[in-house]
């Protein structure tokens, strides 16, 4: 057993589904990272729970009939609440996905993950995973022990998409509650509802009903091998801070970010990426000193437009377009591994 790798045995598959994975089924590697999907309550009707309590083996075995869809192997990469997701685990996970997909024995990867930062991890992976084999991420809003837990259904449908040849070349997909989304578009919209993931500007990539997959629109942004990013040889990412704009916003947090060594700042601006005049002036100064400043918006929908209300050309800023602040942060971290030229980085925000 390397890397904590385990193969679901014939006996286990029989015990779970009454079927062994037959030859010809897609071979899906499950990489588990924790989250509510692996969470446990003290009892099924309890309110609180602990993320990342169950291991990958237990998660897979809890899904009836999974062996009819695919031949599954599982591996534990981390077991955390995704609020604790960090650059180190991102790099480890991306490398494991690349290594797994490079293997002739793996047709696709399914990643279990907490929902809080799923939109960020998925966007990171879609930019740095170099294989065109399917990568699907799933989470759940209810812990594994809950009445009507949503995790097993999401894993089942996630495996169906990971085993669907039409998922090849689509980058990382995020699936919950019968909908799947392109990583670039998807955001978490509701703190507790099972219908929380949405692609607000564009709609989902498709729907799945008990393993039957329906595709909608194709994705038109560069991903995977078409990007200039790579995690090979990378052991850390540049520091990028997000600063939230509001009425009466001061320059204090911007100055603190620069002092603390941020190489980039993303502003979750009001409206079309706006902020107070003192904040703008502080960011203009930061940009002059070489910090890359990206204007995004705290609003859930719409684009942050270049040179609309703020003169980005004059300020030396980048406009985030369709990317929200957390996704802008991911792209800016990767962009800074290549360049700190705001013009080149602006081009990346249009391209990726
Ligand atoms: N806090 C949890 C996490 O992100 C929430 C979830 O998974 O739904 O890990």
Written account of the structure:
With 352 residues, the protein is of the alpha/beta class. The protein has helices at 10-17, 56-61, 66-69, 87-102, 118-128, 151-162, 252-259, 277-288, 312-315, 325-335, 342-351; strands at 6-7, 27-34, 71-80, 108-112, 135-138, 172-176, 179-182, 187-188, 197-198, 206-209, 212-215, 240-244, 264-269, 292-297, 318-319. The strands form 3 sheets. Strands 1-3-2-4-5-6-7-10-11 form a 9-stranded mixed sheet, with helices on both faces. It has a 4-stranded parallel sheet with strand order 12-13-14-15, sandwiched between helices. Helix 6 (151-162) links the parallel strand 5 and strand 6 (172-176). Helix 5 runs parallel beside helix 10 (325-335) and helix 7 packs parallel to helix 8. The radius of gyration is 21 Å and the shape is globular.
């Amino acid at each position: 057993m390397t890397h904590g790798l385990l193969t679901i045995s014939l006996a286990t598959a029989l015990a779970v589904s009454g079927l062994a994975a037959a030859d010809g089924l897609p071979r899906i590697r499950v990489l588990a990272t924790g989250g509510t999907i692996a969470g446990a309550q003290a009892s099924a009707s309890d309110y609180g729970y602990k993320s990342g309590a169950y291991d990958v083996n237990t998660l897979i075995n809890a899904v009836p009939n999974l062996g009819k869809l695919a031949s599954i192997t599982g591996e534990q990469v981390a077991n955390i609440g995704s609020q604790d997701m960090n650059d180190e685990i991102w790099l480890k996970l991306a490398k494991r996905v690349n290594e797994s997909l490079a293997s002739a024995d793996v047709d696709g990867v399914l990643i279990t993950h907490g929902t809080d930062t799923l939109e960020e991890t998925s966007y990171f992976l879609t930019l740095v995973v170099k294989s065109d084999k399917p990568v699907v991420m799933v989470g759940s809003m209810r812990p594994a022990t809950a009445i009507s837990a949503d995790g097993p259904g999401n894993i089942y449908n996630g495996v169906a998409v990971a085993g669907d040849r039409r998922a090849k070349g689509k980058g990382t997909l995020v699936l919950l509650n019968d909908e799947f989304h392109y990583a670039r578009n998807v955001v978490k919209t509701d703190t507790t509802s099972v219908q929380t993931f949405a692609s607000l500007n564009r709609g989902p990539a498709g729907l799945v009903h008990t393993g039957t997959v329906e595709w909608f629109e194709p994705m038109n942004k560069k991903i995977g091998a078409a990007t200039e990013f790579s995690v090979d040889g990378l052991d850390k990412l540049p520091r990028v801070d997000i600063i939230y704009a509001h009425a009466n916003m001061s320059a204090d947090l911007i100055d603190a970010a620069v002092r603390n060594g941020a190489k980039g700042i993303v502003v979750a601006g009001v409206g079309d990426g706006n902020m107070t005049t003192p904040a703008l002036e502080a960011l203009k100064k930061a940009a002059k000193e070489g910090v890359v400043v990206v204007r995004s918006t705290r609003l859930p929908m719409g684009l942050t437009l270049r040179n609309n209300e703020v003169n980005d050309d004059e300020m030396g800023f980048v406009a985030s377009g369709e990317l929200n602040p957390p996704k802008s942060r991911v792209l800016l971290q990767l962009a800074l591994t290549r360049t700190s030229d705001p013009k080149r980085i602006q081009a990346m925000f249009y391209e990726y």
